[in-house]
Specification:
Layout: H1 4-18, E1 26-34, E2 37-44, E3 62-65, E4 71-73, H2 80-107
Length: 109
Amino acid sequence: MLTEEDARRLVLAEIDDLRGHITYDLQILRMEPLPFGWIFYWGAVGDGHSGQRPRLGGNGPFLVDRENERLLRTATSVPVARQIADYERRLRREAHARRTAAKQASQQR
């Protein structure tokens, strides 16, 4: 099981992998707790001159699941709330599949 700090390190490692392709300084801009983990929003730091942060394409937030230690990069073309709801449905389907498999296995004994 991941802690918030573990999740933050995972996201920072992913951001570090992108640094070779992007000339701006990248960082986590904010984090929100979720029932299953966290969502981390990230982007470029302001340039210090204009006071504005450069806009990046493709910098969808990262979902981190504390239980199964998944790190998922979300799409920028789909609302974040919908992606969170989709992931929560995925978790319910996976839990149902595990329960069904366990029930079938116990019936075969």
